[in-house]
């Protein structure tokens, strides 16, 4: 009797559990579809002809797949040039930024000097200030340096990121002090120790920083809009926005969507291959790019 | 000691700068032949830079040591924004394309060189080919300018000359001649006629938007001028556009809009020429835009044949006795520099571009703008160009012709700090008067008061 | 001797960072404060030799300006709508994700996708989805070529198409689109952080609750949320800070007019306001606005920290 009851309870519990699990799945899948819909819409729109796109009853799969939209997008928005510009800025600024971050983080993590704690606290405090506050003055600073419409202006002002320094310093601090002391005894210089021991041990953080920095270049809009808006130095996001607002005719939405897809593609590829690093970097940053 | 000397030098330099802050003192020898590089900002596209290159080369035959470095900055607003930042750090170019509003802005920094002393100078300069020219303008050169254009350089309240006209354009009415003839429509000459034509077009083709107007700001200001209704003033109170006449005008436009007669660049989100040349169902049959943009108002040829012929006419008027059309097109201004030779060299180049008949003709033909010199009309090549005018291949010539026809109706608005804000505000005002839902009078009232408030805020 | 040599070396390591920070961070801070307190400061006028008085006029002018008020209102409204909605949705999704095994990794990846997008690019996709192609919306002469997929869906369920972002559209419709887009954009980061938090909660708590026979809802409110509170506080604070810097997502949807074509600037935000002030050469007012933004972010963060001190259970 009791055993039977037990079974009954566990059966209804089981049904309840199965029910709640399927509810879970339904909820998640519906949400996932909502999240994915814009991507789906972007891709199918990018393959439609303008006439099909403008039909009053939408089609959920293109009647005729028009790959030529991608070619049009590439030429209309001059994407080739924009890709190159963005890559140059992204690569150079990432490289320089890594070097500066490593040096600074090392000094704060391992070296001894007067006012170290105060200086570090001051650095962290600057993170509170909205970037727009700097822009006002930086705009005239770079103008007086003659940097308007150069790659320099897109790279140099953002080489120091207090957040990355903080991230890397924390990582450096986790490396046991004994290693450092042992190296000292061996007569290894600080410089050598930094590059031979600390940097390799902090590789995951450095990769995260690299990706975030590259994504930052890819997504930057406001500053380039202000200081480098000429053909030769325009960045991808600005070019994308411009290409379809300065048009002299009807907006060709399929071509626009193709351009958007092309711009999004590299980010997706990076994401697919380096998901782990992005996620770990992002969860600590709380900022985009 | 050294420090002291350099300090003294600096102080004297500063003092000398201050005394020469307004007028330009022409050095006794004029241009001394020294090597200078002058920076020139413009908005020319790839269709025009070859013309410029050609005439820079010609100019360099006369002045081999003056190197002209030009940059195509983008649009007029980009030129303005870049220069107004560069001025704050003393990095402005030597010469720039400008509109009166821009000069009013640069004048806040007192960085635009007034040209009166240069124009009046009789100092004789020997050129590289052995010939000579006076530094200033000769009486003949002055007289050759179309007077109204030349006087636009002096509209900054102090009677001094700040800019030289380079080329001019105005607004014209483009219409689908094929359609108009097929349906026996008359080209409108007044706004009332225009509304009537729009109504007829709507009957013929209900899916159409009969008229596209590119610049809302121009439309508002032109309607003010045509009715002698106040817009702005160079002295306080600056902003006069909030009045009964203008409200009534906006109400009329709102009714037209709601009857489906028209759209504008902002509402259409692109130049309305795109609608005019469109091959889809929704298209326009009239388009009011810059005379310099004629090639954009021509439909794409299919197998060498244009789908329709374009006609060009003067814009509609309110009052046949008070014809007004806007005067547009770039002028050139010269910026102050510490080195007087740079200023002189800039002036020589500006003078060359604005007074050389061949350049004016070539530039006008390539751009669709009209020249600022009377004698260009006698230039054989240009005369031939005008004679070829038609609504197809030679549409630029046709628009230039229409543009020249109404030269006596040109107006300009006062330029002062705040004039560019007023211009952009009346443009947005017009848009919101057309589209905002609600009671017409209330919507218009609100739109005017917002525009006034914005203008007042922008004065500082 | 060794000490001072070391010191000298440390500064060498720091030199590049400090040099850049002095030019691009420290000087701007000083200069912004200076310009903000000089009456009507303008770089152009300064170049013309004008002298500016010390005062708080810039702050007064900015605060009284209707556009500033509307920018502030937009920013605050967007924060107040998007932060709670996205946090709640993210929490639900994270909890649901945490309770499943099959497909967990795949779904997790899907939910993270919006993060690796360019907010302007995808903004253009959203704009296309909400866009109507046509003219004279809302008048008798309305011409509609394409109503946009969202309106198609509404029509499918028997509703009237809504003018979301075109001219003549209402402020509420515009805001709705922005809220949808910003929430969509904000989800991935929040899900990631919250899921990470959930996975680190000690399983023993749940097992104890199971033994007690605690209902699922009680488990959620009494165990999950309190134990997750540090993470929740973190995503809410960063959400507010990010919300106050909202700008590019609006550019993505509306373009630089920051509003429907006939009502430019209607959806402008604090950040947009600063840039507008900058491009009209009134650096004094731009600086004042930037300092106000800083003050607001500071205050909001302080409040958030205070509240979370009381509520967060470590």
Topology of helices and strands:
The complex is a heterotrimer of chains A (289), B (460) and C (314).
Chain A: H1 2-46, H2 50-53, H3 68-76, H4 79-110, H5 116-126, H6 131-144, H7 152-155, H8 162-174, H9 177-185, H10 190-201, H11 203-219, H12 222-227, H13 236-243, H14 253-285
Chain B: H1 2-19, E1 36-42, H2 49-62, E2 66-72, H3 76-88, E3 95-98, H4 100-106, H5 116-120, E4 124-126, E5 132-134, H6 139-144, H7 147-151, E6 163-165, E7 171-176, H8 177-182, H9 191-204, E8 211-213, H10 216-226, H11 244-258, E9 262-264, H12 265-268, H13 273-276, E10 286-290, E11 310-314, E12 325-326, E13 331-334, H14 340-355, H15 357-367, H16 380-387, H17 395-405, E14 410-411, H18 419-435, H19 440-458
Helix pairs in contact in B: 10-18, 11-18, 11-19, 18-19
Chain C: H1 2-36, H2 43-47, H3 57-64, H4 66-98, H5 104-112, H6 119-130, E1 133-135, E2 143-146, H7 149-156, H8 171-199, H9 203-212, H10 216-244, H11 248-254, H12 270-279, H13 283-311
Antiparallel strand pairs in C: 1-2
H/E series of chain A: HHHHHHHHHHHHHH
**Which oligomeric form is depicted?**
heterotrimer
CA distance, first residue to last residue of chain A: 64 Å
The CATH level-2 architecture of the largest domain in chain B is identified as 3-Layer(aba) Sandwich
Number of domains of chain A: 2
Q: Name the CATH superfamily classification of the largest domain in chain B.
A: Periplasmic binding protein-like II
Number of strands of chain B: 14
The helix content of chain B, as a percent range, equals: 40-55%
Work out the helix count of chain B: 19
Report the principal-axis shape of chain B: globular
So what's the CATH class of the largest domain in chain A? Mainly Alpha
Any idea what the shape of chain A is?
A: flat
Average pLDDT over all residues of chain A: 84
Question: Biggest interface, and residues per chain?
Answer: A-C, 88 and 92 residues
Figure out the total of helices of chain A. 14
Average pLDDT reading of chain B: 89
Computed CA radius of gyration of chain A, to the nearest angstrom: 26 Å
Low-confidence stretches of chain A: none
Task: Please identify the structural class of chain B as seen in this structure.
Answer: alpha/beta
């Amino acid at each position: 009797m009791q055993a039977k009851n037990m079974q009954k309870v566990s059966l209804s519990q089981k049904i309840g559990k199965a029910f709640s699990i399927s509810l879970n799945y339904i909820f998640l899948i519906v949400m996932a579809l909502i999240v994915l819909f814009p991507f789906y819409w972007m891709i199918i729109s990018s393959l439609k002809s303008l006439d099909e796109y403008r039909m009053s009853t939408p089609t959920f799969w293109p009647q005729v797949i028009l790959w030529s939209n991608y070619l049009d997008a590439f030429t209309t928005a001059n994407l080739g040039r924009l890709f190159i510009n963005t890559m140059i800025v992204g690569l150079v600024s990432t490289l320089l930024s890594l070097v500066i971050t490593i040096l600074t983080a090392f000094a704060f993590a391992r070296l001894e000097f007067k006012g170290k704690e105060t200086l570090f606290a001051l650095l962290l405090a600057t993170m509170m200030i909205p970037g727009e506050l700097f822009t006002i003055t930086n705009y005239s600073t770079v103008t007086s340096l003659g940097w308007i419409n150069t790659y320099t202006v897109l790279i140099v002002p953002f080489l120091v990121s207090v957040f990355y320094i903080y991230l890397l310093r924390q990582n450096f601090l986790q490396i046991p002090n004994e290693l450092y002391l042992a190296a000292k005894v061996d007569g290894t210089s600080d410089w050598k120790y930094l590059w031979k021991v600390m940097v390799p041990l902090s590789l995951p953080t450095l990769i995260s920083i690299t990706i975030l920095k590259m994504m930052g270049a890819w997504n930057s809009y406001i500053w380039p809009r202000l200081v480098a808006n000429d053909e030769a130095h325009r960045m991808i996001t600005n070019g994308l926005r411009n290409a379809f607002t300065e048009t002299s005719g009807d907006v060709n939405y399929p071509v626009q969507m193709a351009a958007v897809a092309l711009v999004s593609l590299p980010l997706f590829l990076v994401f697919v291959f380096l998901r782990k690093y992005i996620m770990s970097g992002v969860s600590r940053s709380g900022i985009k790019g | 000691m050294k420090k002291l000397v350099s300090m003294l030098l600096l102080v004297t330099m500063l003092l000398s700068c201050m005394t020469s802050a307004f007028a330009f003192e022409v050095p006794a020898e004029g241009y001394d032949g020294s090597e200078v590089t002058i920076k020139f900002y413009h908005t020319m596209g790839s269709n025009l830079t070859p013309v410029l290159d050609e005439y820079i080369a010609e100019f360099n035959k006369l002045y081999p040591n003056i190197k002209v470095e030009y940059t195509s900055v983008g649009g007029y607003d980009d030129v303005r924004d870049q220069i107004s930042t560069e001025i704050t750090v003393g990095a402005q170019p030597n010469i720039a394309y400008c509109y009166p509003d821009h000069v009013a802005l640069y004048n806040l920094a007192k960085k635009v060189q007034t040209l009166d002393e240069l124009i009046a100078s009789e100092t004789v300069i020997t050129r590289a080919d052995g010939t000579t020219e006076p530094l200033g303008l000769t009486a003949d050169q002055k007289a050759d300018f179309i007077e109204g254009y030349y006087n636009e350089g002096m509209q900054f309240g102090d009677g001094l000359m700040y800019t030289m006209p380079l080329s001019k354009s105005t607004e014209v009415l483009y219409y689908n001649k094929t359609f108009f003839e097929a349906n026996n429509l008359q080209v409108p000459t007044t706004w009332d006629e225009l509304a009537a034509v729009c109504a007829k077009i709507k009957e013929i083709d209900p899916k159409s938007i009969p008229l596209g107007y590119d610049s809302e700001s121009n439309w508002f200001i032109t309607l003010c001028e045509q009715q002698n209704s106040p817009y702005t003033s160079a002295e306080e109170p600056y902003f006069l556009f909030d009045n009964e006449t203008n409200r009534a005008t906006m109400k009329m436009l709102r009714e037209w809009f709601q009857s489906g007669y028209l759209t504008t660049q902002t509402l259409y989100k692109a130049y309305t020429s795109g609608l005019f040349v469109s091959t889809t169902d929704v298209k326009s049959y009239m388009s009011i835009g810059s005379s310099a943009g004629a090639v954009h108002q021509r439909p794409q040829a299919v197998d060498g044949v244009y789908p329709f012929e374009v006609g060009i006419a003067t814009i509609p008027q309110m009052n046949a006795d008070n014809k007004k059309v806007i005067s547009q097109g770039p002028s050139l201004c010269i910026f102050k520099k510490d080195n007087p030779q740079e200023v002189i060299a800039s002036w020589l180049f500006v003078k060359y571009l604005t007074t050389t008949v061949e350049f004016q003709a070539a530039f006008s033909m390539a751009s669709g703008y009209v020249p600022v010199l009377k004698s260009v009309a006698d230039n054989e090549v240009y005369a031939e160009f005008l004679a070829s005018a038609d609504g197809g291949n030679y549409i630029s010539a046709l628009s230039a012709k229409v543009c020249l026809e109404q030269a006596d109706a040109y107006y300009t608005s006062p330029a002062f700090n705040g004039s560019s804000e007023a211009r952009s505000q009346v443009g947005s005002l017009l848009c919101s008067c057309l589209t905002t839902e609600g009671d017409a009078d209330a919507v218009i009232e609100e739109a005017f008061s917002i525009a006034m408030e914005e203008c007042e805020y922008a004065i500082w | 001797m060794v000490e001072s040599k070391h010191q000298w070396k440390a500064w060498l390591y720091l030199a590049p960072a400090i040099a850049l920070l002095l030019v691009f961070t420290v000087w701007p801070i000083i200069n912004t404060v200076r310009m903000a307190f000089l009456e009507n400061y303008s770089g152009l006028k300064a170049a013309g030799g004008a002298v500016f008085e010390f005062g708080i006029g810039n702050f007064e002018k900015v605060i009284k300006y209707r556009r500033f008020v509307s920018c502030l209102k937009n920013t605050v409204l967007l924060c107040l709508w998007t932060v709670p909605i996205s946090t709640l949705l993210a929490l639900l999704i994270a909890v649901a994700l945490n309770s499943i095994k099959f497909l967990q990794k795949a779904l997790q990846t899907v939910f993270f996708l919006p993060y690796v997008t360019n907010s302007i690019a995808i903004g253009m996709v959203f704009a296309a989805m909400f866009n109507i192609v046509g003219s004279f919306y809302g008048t008798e002469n309305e011409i509609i070529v394409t109503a946009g997929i969202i309106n198609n869906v509404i029509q499918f369920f028997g509703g009237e198409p809504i003018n979301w972002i075109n001219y003549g559209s209402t402020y509420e419709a515009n805001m709705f689109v922005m809220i949808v887009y910003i929430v969509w954009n904000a989800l991935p980061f929040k899900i990631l952080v919250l899921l990470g938090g959930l996975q680190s909660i000690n399983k023993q708590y749940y097992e104890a609750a199971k033994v007690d026979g605690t209902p699922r809802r009680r488990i959620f409110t009494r165990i999950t949320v309190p134990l997750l509170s540090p993470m929740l506080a973190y995503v809410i604070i960063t959400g507010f800070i990010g919300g106050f810097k909202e700008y590019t997502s609006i550019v993505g949807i509306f373009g630089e007019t920051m509003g429907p074509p006939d009502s430019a600037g209607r959806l402008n935000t604090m950040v947009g306001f600063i840039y507008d002030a900058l491009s009209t050469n009134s650096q004094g007012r731009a600086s004042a606005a930037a300092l106000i933004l800083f003050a607001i972010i500071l205050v909001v963060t302080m409040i958030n920290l205070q509240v979370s001190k009381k509520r967060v259970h470590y």
